[in-house]
Amino acid sequence: MFEINDILPALPEMFLACVALLLVLVAAYGGDGAVNAKRVCSIALGAIVIAAVMLWQGGDIATTAFSGMFSADSFSAYMKLLVLMGSFAALYMSISPLEQDDINKPEFSLLVLLAVVGMMLMISANDLMSLYMAVELQSLPLYVVAAMRTNSLRSSEAGLKYFLLGALSSGMLLYGASLVYGFAGTTSFDGISAAVATGALPVVFVIGMVFMICGIAFKISAAPFHMWTPDVYEGSPTPVTALFAIAPKVAAMALMMRLTYGAFGPIAVEWSQVLVALSIASMVIGAFGAIMQTDIKRMMAYSSIAHMGYALAGLAAGSHAGVLGVIIYMTGYIFMGAGTFAIILMMRREGKSATKIDDLRGLSKTHPLFAIGLLVMMFSMAGIPPLAGFFGKWYVFLAAVNAGLIPLAVIGVVMSVVGAFYYLRIIRMMYFEDSDDPLDADLPMSNRLVLTVSLAVVLLFFAGLGSLLGTADIAATTLMTSN
Where are the transmembrane segments (predicted)? Predict the structure, then answer.
């Protein structure tokens, strides 16, 4: 039974949940046209902004709620703000292409808002029960929006694949949680941490821990649990793909950090080995898989797999520096993803979406400003200094080296070089090849604004790095000391 003190730490989540319930009525009785869809989208965007202000005001408060199942601290506030920024960007960019992408349905923004509530609860999960409930609340709406384009066979296939493999990962997560509970005798992260610190661990607990980590690895599309990612990215409507590529990855990575450094904190040697394997597999499969792609959405899917591998390299360090590196990496990743998909969403020919990499030929001549924007994003993702992507990789690899994981860091650097190939291929097409059929010139203002903000952050990342390091250090310290 909760008390009034439980409400304040979870106020942003409760506010968004209440707005989502209100939007059910708006979606049901406001009509089925694009006008109502934009109305619901605008209300959802306003709710996200208000929730971000709530977090900004109360982010320094470290407390728990609902009998310790919900944790609110600087770490959760920082990661939630990243999720809200990424979700806002993806939802804001969906306003203009609603009609063209056949997602002009009021329930689209409603489902996204419910998924955002789930993501925020994932970040604050401090108990196996709240962890599982949050994961399901995040996943179920995303299964639906992946298949939102009902007149497209690919979209239906994407939603079905995502649902089936997501159900498999949820089963792995739940089975692992039951084994962990069987050993610890409690679902609380603090209780599990105390139990594993007492002595030798039975094999059944280690199996449960591995199952839980693998279940969450599916949510961040880490290899070898990445099978759904390319097909879902390609088949889903592009605004949905933009959402998948940004916000859920941050929430799942934060949950992975909360679980490993919290519940399994005293046995970092055991779970670090699992993360090293996931990191190497993700970096290798992501880098080489992207080279063969001809669709830019599939290429971005493999790119995201590789990026999660780089982030896991810092997480595997099991240190304060590792947490700091992952926080910085995910901060840059949000803006790199938003800026890249702002341009992908603007790729249209005769009003229809164009997602082939070849469609970028000659972009520098027809849309020079957007070609520069995509060039900056590709360089940043490749890790070219002094852009945001470079500093993210620098801090995660530095944490890995300091933790003695030198081979992992070396593999990461080599895979970054391999990954630069497919990023440079896009730049070559834009600047050194011509197109007989240029893309449309009529481009939405929402995408331009998102691209402008993303470019500013990526280009000036080094200028605000000092302040960012201070804030990220507080968040990392909070996570390390609260468990």
Answer: 14-31, 40-57, 77-95, 107-125, 162-184, 196-218, 239-259, 271-292, 323-347, 368-388, 394-424, 449-470
**Contact 471/117 with Cβ under 8 angstroms?**
no
The answer on pLDDT for 260 being more than 80 is yes
pLDDT, tens digit (0-9, with 9 covering 90-100), for 295-311? 888 999 999 999 999 99
Distance in Å from the first CA to the final CA of the chain: 24
Q: For residue 60, name the pLDDT band (cuts at 50, 70, 90).
A: low
pLDDT in tens, 152-201: 777 788 888 888 888 888 999 999 999 999 988 888 998 998 888 887 78
Rounded CA gap, 181 and 262, in Å? 15
Structure tokens at 259: 């679980």
Q: Inform me whether the pLDDT recorded for 345 exceeds 90.
A: no
Cis peptide before 385 (omega within 30 of 0): no
Partners of 348 in the β-ladder: 353
Per-residue pLDDT at 437 exceeds 80? no
User: 3-state SS string over the chain?
Assistant: CCCHHHCCCCHHHHHHHHHHHHHHHHHHHCCCCHHHHHHHHHHHHHHHHHHHHHHHHHCCCCEEECCCCEEECHHHHHHHHHHHHHHHHHHHHCCCCCCCCCCCCHHHHHHHHHHHHHHHHHHHECEHHHHHHHHHHHHHHHHHHHCCCCCCHHHHHHHHHHHHHHHHHHHHHHHHHHHHHHHHCCCEHHHHHHHHCCCCCCHHHHHHHHHHHHHHHHHCCCCCCCCHHHHHHHHCCHHHHHHHHHHHHHHHHHHHHHHHHHHCHHHHHHHHHHHHHHHHHHHHHHHHHHHCCCEHHHHHHHHHHHHHHHHHHHHCCCCHHHHHHHHHHHHHHHHHHHHHHHHHHCCEECCEECCEHHHHCCHHHHCHHHHHHHHHHHHHHHCCCCCHHHHHHHHHHHHHHHCCCHHHHHHHHHHHHHHHHHHHHHHHHHHHCCCCCCCCCCCCHHHHHHHHHHHHHHHCCCCCHHHHHHHHHHHHHHHHHCC
* pLDDT greater than 60 at residue 101: no
Average pLDDT estimate for 221-239: 86
467 φ/ψ angles, rounded to the nearest 5 degrees: -65, -40
